[in-house]
User: Fold these one by one.
Assistant:
Number 1:
Amino acid sequence: MVDVTVQTPPVETRAVRLRHFWSDYRRSWVAVLALAIITTLVLASFGAPFLVPQNPYDLAQLDWADAFLRPGQTGSGGYVHLLGTDNAGRDMLSAILYGLRTSFVIGITAGILALILGISIGLTAAYFGGRIEALLMRIVDLQLSMPAILLALVMAAMLGQGVPQIVLALVVAQYAYFARTTHGAASVERRKDYIEAARSTPLPTRRILFKHLLPNVLPPLIVVATVQVASAISLEATLSFLGVGLPLTEPSLGSLISNGFKYIHAGRSWLSIYPGIFLMVTVVAINLVGDQVRTVIDPRNSR
Amino acid sequence: MLGYLVGRLSQAVVVVFVMSVIVFVGVYAIGNPIDVMIDPGATQEIRENLIRQYGLDLPLWQQYFTFVGNVFQGDLGRSMVYNISVTSLVFSRLPATVELVMVSVCIATIIGIPAGLYAGYKPDSIAAKLIMALSVLGFSVPTFWIGMLLIMGFAVNLGWLPSGGRGEVAQFLWFKTSLATGDGWAHVIMPAVNLSLFKMGLMIRLTRAGMVEAMGAEYVRFARAQGLPDRQIVFGHILRNISIPIITVFGLELGSTLAFAVVTETVFNWPGVGKLIIDSILQLDRPVMVSYLVMVVLLFVLINLAVDLIYARLDPRVRLKGGS
């Protein structure tokens, strides 16, 4: 008799995998900085009511006498307006943080909804194949050939102004990216043995789709989702700038920039330049994080 | 091949039909254009006459078929704001957009290709990393914001360039263009740079990817072994080999330039078709919106069709596999 000791490979718990991910991620200091910036911006924007001196959309707190104060001047409220005030006497820093919160809410909601819709369509197409696949992916491809900004513009024009309308317009403009990625990854996974094995058991289709297929196509989707949240924020800002997004009574960064744009010839550039800087930093930071996540989870780069 | 062609063509027709219905119904839902057109003090009678004149009292499906019938006779309707036919309105705006797009494509090519070649030639140099960082910015920073920065810098602060609008036009061969005057060039350069940034980023990435791949290829090593100078290898051999995919992607992107022109034209107050569609959306000019959108759908369907057919021609597997 030979004594056989079976060496089981160490089980990778979720915590261990997360630690591995982090040690890979932090190799790029730019990406770490980007992550820190996003975290700060998210915290600052959602904590805005406790951080800034003014609720910029409570008309009772605005004073017309404070209009167009330069950055650093003190207004009638007795506090310093770090980034100046706008044409209605709004403190720009307060307006920007409130606006950033709206932008985050819209970007993240639209991203998640588009992800869910895209996954459902992509998985359905890849799993069932045949005519359903041909039809669904044909629609997705046609949509991908059109620029997202055009679709979003048309949708926003049809639906009208307001947060839910804009979110819907963004979902329609963006779900196709998720559907295409899901479909691509799932068509590869579908041919593997474990799916064949699962199909030969009496498991319900839904369970195979979501418990077995989905976890294996998730990694590339995380990257797409990150990039799409950034692109949703930037699309929403563009729509608001063009005048079909959010009204100034319900502002996002885009509507603030759009409002400030009217005053750049009068030399009052702080009205548009500061919200613009916040928008740019947010979008670029999210993209940098997405890039690094892509590098880390790419199997070709694994150690 | 014939079966494939018929299949693709009928698909394209179905897509255009479905999209035109969606656009028509969607635009119909936006609001009543009559409310915008006449002043609220007008009598009920004037109001009703106007509604009847534009056919807005008919049921929606009847309005749709009237529209389609007119389209087949070459009539896209009349603009409710400008009171001229949509066809002549669009064609009066088209030259401005075309010249803007052309200049921006040239800028993207002239800067993008050499930058991409260099980034692929010396991928680890600092300049290459800088080029790639700039291309990321071109992709991710919103177009309208860069446009505003350009205006702030070159028009408001430095006062070198006009902040918007189209310059003087002059006759060049058989058409009028602002590219024939110095004033025209001063007006076109900023919007064109703004519009070119996204494409430039794309160009840099494509060229760099092709270059990196080619540098490791057999034919390049062979040319090196022959003792050819790098200059000749890059411009004589590599550029020729990687230009086909670049041109393909670039051609496809031309369609989306139309969409980006919407943003750039609004920022720079450029009187092209992009500005026209934004104005018509804000002013509820229904005929202009519907016609523009149907034209855009048609354009994209045609581009897709062309790509499908070219691929099918080049690769027999495509036409054999996906019959219909």
Number 2:
Amino acid sequence: MISATDLQLTFGKGTPLENPALRGMSLTVNQGEFVTVIGSNGAGKSTFLNALAGEVLVDSGNIVVDNLNVTKLSTHKRAGRVARVFQDPLAGTCEGLSIEENLALAIKRGQRRGLSAAVKKQYMEQFRESLSSLNLGLEDRLGDKMGLLSGGQRQAVSLLMASLTPSNILLLDEHTAALDPKTAAFVLALTTKIIEEQKLTALMVTHSMKQALEVGTRTVMLHQGQVVFDINGKDREGLEVKDLLDLFEKQRGLSVDDDSLLLG
Amino acid sequence: MLSEIAFYGAIETGLIYGLVAFGIYISFRVLDFPDLTVDGSFPLGAAVAAVLIMQGWNPWVATGAAVLAGMAAGAVTAMLNVKLKILNLLASILTMIALYSINLRVMGRPNIALLGEETVLTPWYSLDLAYHQVPVLLFVIVVFIALILLWRFMKSETGLAMRATGANPRMARAQGIATGAMIILGVAVSNGLVGLAGALFAQSQGAADVTMGVGVIVIGLASLIGGEAVITPTTVIRALVACVVGAIIYRLAIALALNADFLGFKAQDLNLITAILVTLAIVLPGARNSLVNKLTRKKA
């Protein structure tokens, strides 16, 4: 379980560019939930994910992951609990290292690293097996440099790396946004498959309302650094993009003028 | 064109600079941390080893102390960057400048002669080898051991974490790697190797001098870049071998340039030749590629 309570974060405090990104954001994600997060540009989606991961520290509020208060912990100290896939397909892997070296880095996520060889024989079976589930033929290219792979392939490997060891929550930050439609569909299908198979708890930020309703078990919309609505279970079934927009207008008494919300 | 003694001398110095190039490979290539501390940690290693040898310490223990001193200097640079958020290049310049004073303090005077003292080389002179071949043999062994250890380290869990830190720090943090600690460790190891090189250089040349570090960074970079031009560094082991090969080629090129009378170079032209060689080493691979491109385009 992961719970964020009353998160406040302002960038550039005391400067003309002062930008309140999180204004009392609260959200609790239960074990096994797959939450999709939507919201317009500047709603605080990425900042919220960065705050959960530890890349930015909040000004006030609390973040608790599996009964441990991680609010003040830096990214690497949270990494054992929080797994992550970035929007940029190149950001989640090291292009200068081989596929097996990248996987070897990920298999020790959040654990002590010693002086024994990083790429161990006992890992190989697991590496081959998980790579073959991608159907990209990567299981025969373990020694190849990551940089030789396409963006979609690298994002698929990033996803594998994030799920190679157990975590309390998997953060997906618009991880299909930078891919072409076909590859994006492939990576999204892979995402739902991995989350279902391993019964992961996940938080997926997406720009597409359609995608937000099609996958996952719960949908949350952010606006101006707060949760404006939160639907799951029966309420969410059969909901369409138009219903979401109506819901949004009703909640905030605002009209949506951001085209990006309608796309997809 | 090159006498036997000059040839072995070039190999000997080349091997020592191979250790410097290892250090620069770790900072510049693995960590992407432009570290100029080496101009101070090289004479620091020499100073520490020389002072301890003069006080009657075992030369290997003195050399070990020089390594530790170099590591401490590197750790200071890295901490200035990681903890105090000073730009990496500037942090290293600050340490380098500070080390000039520290080296004078360590030695108590600008230079120390080690003539007649027991050094790491002394026992090896009883071997049935020519005088100028002894240091080459010893340094080949030292460089070989350092190369194997570094190679193993870079392939270890911690070494891989260090490579990820330099290549993609955001990803490294997300994988639970303490990137700050990796930078401190890496820059420390890098300068430890340079301290070792300084200690060996002082013992083979018979003196430690406070000015002996001037330009070490450029020579190390020349070796690294030159080596990479000859041996493409696609793997860690190739990159490490390239460091040694580059350093030896560089020293041989310098020896040739200084010995070739028709070129008219003198010892004082050393730094000029170095700068020219480094420029060529950086520019030539690109120029070759564009030349190849032009030629193939014409054919097509």
Number 3:
Amino acid sequence: MNAAPSHKVLSAPLVVEFPFTRSLGPVQSAFLTGLRERTVLGVKASDGRTLVPPTEYDPVTAEELRDLVEVGRTGTVTTWSWNDRPRRGQPLRHPFAWVLVRLDGADTALLHALDAPEGPQAVNTGMRVRIRWAEHRSGAITDIACFEPDDSVPSTHRAQPHPGEFADPVTGIVAEARLDYTYTPGRAQTRYLDALTTRRTLGERCPRCHKVYVPPRGACPTCGVPTGEQVEVGPRGTVTTFCVVNIKAKGLDIEVPYVYAHIALDGAGLALHGRIAGIPYDQVRMGLRVEPVWTEGGRYPDHYRPTGEPDADYETYKELL
Amino acid sequence: MSTPTSLGGSGKEPVGVVGIGQTKHVSARRDVSMAGLVREAAVRALADAELGWADIDAVVIGKAPDFFEGVMMPELYLADALGAVGKPMLRVHTAGSVGGSTALVAANLVAARVHRTVLTLAFEKQSESNAMWGLSLPVPFQQPLLAGAGGFFAPHVRAYMHRTSAPDHIGALVAYKDRRNALKNPYAHLHEEDITLEKVRSSPMLWDPIRYSETCPSSDGACAMVLTDRAGAAHAPRPAAWVHGGAMRSEPTLFAGKDAVSPRAGRDCAADVYRQAGIGEPRREIDAVEMYVPFSWYEPMWLENLGFAKEGEGWKMTESGATELDGELPVNPSGGVLSTNPIGASGMLRFAEAALQVRGAAGAHQVPGARRALGHAYGGGSQFFAMWLVADEPPTG
């Protein structure tokens, strides 16, 4: 990503993606294992209703629910919404209907997809549908590939007690989460990043307390007023405190041990963070004078190295730790 | 700054803690869902208070940021498990301090006579989360943090050591003490039966000056409390812990002049709590402290920040043995965060353990005769602070 001209605020995609594990507990374990075995389980609630999908605790009395029952594989659409442009990770790749389906024998409805190739005009509340099972089932809600239209008559199917016990039950699932953002660092940080492309560090001074913020945030967090006056700081600075990192951090390609330090650039009102190199890690000390070392194409200094100046006196940086 | 809340002050309803429950904290509770986990703590708190779901007027729940487990607004799906259907349910959100803030929101609802009996609960299922990922998203244009959570805090520890000339071994003393205390707490996560000071001191140096044994574990767990008014407490089967003061303060993670070693928000928060509770000399008047110490050196740092030791002398207090279970001011009799860290619940565990002490219900880690105890939590980059002071008698006036 190249820096934009100063009048243009930067922006970039930020994708947050992670596989989360989930322990299921007894009820969800039975429900998902059941789907793997083409069996849909619900649970009997205190008021006699059959809840599908089942819940662990009664929505009325809060009591623990454990009486599992098996319901039908056909059901009735209780409401629906047409999805014209399916997104990644959704049950079908072509347009489909999101439906709430009350399976025969259940008193509540399950959310899923309805494959309706003839389009939304073929979908209506009250229509009969049946489960289309996925070919490969693992014990997940996606074991139901989707629902499809069915010509059965509304059934008087009654929920049948089920022990909820299966061989090799599923006890956990992995839920992939993904969030797509567009991130913009704002005007102040854009100005700061622009200056860094010419290897200059620009802070912004608070008009009230006169502290220079690096990196600038556009406002002084203490005084609550906008900062606008740009002030060049550094390039040299002082190591105000540090630690020696002995374990590799995930996603960081830096050989350990290395020194992670707070560095107060000359003229700055607070320290920023950087890596110290060009000196054995066990000789780094508070007060060490350092300067940035750039690598070609780097947005930030790669690290800081000693300048050879005498160490700074603690009194000069004690409020910049 | 907003008008300080005042628990225990005149005109407010006295708030009593009449039920406390927690799970046995472990690294992974694969046998329960999140709902099952919170349920376990809530059921134990209700049993302690001898109350049922119908006796609860509102539920206040807290946990660390949603990113940790990746469930957006988990409180919605936990309502059934906590008997919250048809009742007010609030979620509190202040990073690592959230367990403390959550308890304070619940206490204020009772103090303000909005509700008579409130169930408050906090949890984390760290085995199903990724705290590191949740805390350090790779934000475009920004320099990545060059160290993990410990690396973030280690420079502050070095700054403390430099500022106070504390000798290197203090951190190890804290870890050795807290891990031994944990052996007396059946709910604690780490039970290191063979712990020795030498083992702590020879454990690997992760983020110099922080060693492996001076860091907190990653736990699955939940903690719940039932808070009620004077009339409710009168019917309680066991003694109540009475809230005499409670306060929250916050400040930015980074600003010019921030004192990360002794943040002003922490000092101000403690001063407010002591003012409400009428405490003039905290070290003399408080019998036990449960403070949020995720890295061992934070004990001496917070001893100073909370006014138990003069500036620069917190480490001397630790070194003297004053904070041991049989010392003059026991700190973290439960084993603390160093022994148990379900992040969202950790703050509430501090508050609950303080309450257990003044109820005389802490079992093998009871501080004999404890009448006043402080529960303390902090979170973010030393950004959020929450504290309460509980006592064995209701506040007067």
Number 4:
Amino acid sequence: MLLDGLARLGRSGLGALERLGRAHLLLAGMVLGIGEILRRPGLLIAQLFNIGVLSMLIIGVSGLFVGMVLGLQGYYVLAQFGAAESLGVMVAASLVRELGPVVTALLVAGRAGSALTAEIGLMKATEQLSGLEMMAVDPVRRILTPRFFGGVLAMPLLAAMFSAVGVLGGYFVGVGLLGVDSGSFWSQMQSKVDFHEDIVNGVIKSVVFGVVVTWIALFQGHDSVPTSEGVSRATTRSVVHAALAVLGLDFVLTALMFGE
Amino acid sequence: MGSRRPRATRPAAVPAVGSSEPAATPDAARSGTSPDNGPRPGGEVLVKIRGLSFRRGTQVVLHRVDMDIRRGAVTAVMGPSGTGKTTLLKLITGQLRPDAGSIEVDGQPVHTLGKSALFRLRRRMGMLFQSGALLTDLNVFDNVAYPLREHTDLGPSMLRKLVLLKLEAVGLRGARDLMPSELSGGMARRVALARAIALDPDIILYDEPFTGQDPISKGMLVTLIRQLNDAAGLTSILVSHDVDETARIADHLYVISHGEVIAQGTPREIAADRSAWVRQFMDGLPDGPVHFHYPAPPLADDLLPRGAA
């Protein structure tokens, strides 16, 4: 009984290590395949459209509402200390440092990541990936690499858009509805938000999240069991693993960037 | 009479496991393509399989299989579902690696080739997948043009002409603008066939091409496979469990069961084979060496309460 349990635990551990190894081999294959998108930039542009442009609506709307909520909540807290004029810096710093990269990554994992997993999983289930291999075309370089770099490049752009729209949302609520001075809102933001410490660190975070979210999505699709149930499970795993990885990595990156 | 090998014993006509000699069949020296059931082409061996074994976990999929695929012939591998036919194709094309044995395609050991050498070899092979495996985001024209765009520097005008000729060969020149979702199953397979021959391969492999096809589509595919093989000088390997269609066009048949070759020969020889297993498969008998019932305890044990039986 005990030995059976230990054997199961061992098998499960070995299976997890094997998956981890396959995931890293896939990542290496995609990174080494960068030559493919340099030769055929059209492949990358198509994926930037699929992952980036088609996610703009959900990112824009979410950014607007998150910014509006930040404006509202921030105003009530700051007003208690007579610091309502600092609303601009509070909204901008929150968005650029944390909410922009993190919420964008979660939204991209849900919208584009799940789509990538399902697409690659279905291509595997319908033998399209095997068909490419039989045509002497490497599916990792031809299909996965453009999607990987598309996701990595789209993520910081979408996060920047999320933050920009969020700031406008905060401005609308704080200045437009609650009467905060417009000049103070913008000037404090300009003087207190640091380019390197806030914006560059935010961009670094979103690039890391872009790598992780797209990598997880593509690996789950590529490693899925080629059945309808297998693809469905892989899609769920893709979103769950990506969300957990983003939140965990956010803590680590924040500690590294802003810790003493 | 075709050579055959019941699971436990081996007649002399089947090559010994691991032997480098091909099977000795009465008509081995004769030549000339005959699509019905007569002698098979006596060309050189293009694909040589020796002692091939493959496992999935603890399940033995193929066990010490020997085969010779001759140049210019249509060679069919037949057997019930789940006997390792598709696995055999994947091993020949290097999509899977065997646990034991060797596979040589035109003298090249597929099972030991590196990725780039394997890809070079695959440019000389075409494969028709059971599902067609068309790229769903490309239309018919672009699907057929895909391997040409990947592996040649042809200009748009020449590429267009070649693609249209390939589509004309399968009767679908008029469907070039359709998307895969707009094709019937038979049309999708014909498009996939046009794509498989786009690079003028030496070998073409068919994975269950007749499965799920209506009689008209089946007839078209049967004719196409034979005509393409003869007109383009191909070597065809056909995996199927459709007895009549396959026997009509094959020059040589291998019958496999439980991962082992149990009979081989021309369609006429296989038709004359009297072994119980071959007869059950070829005549579609519901019971025989392959039992109708999956192994189970007596029915009474399952239906009656314990102790009442």
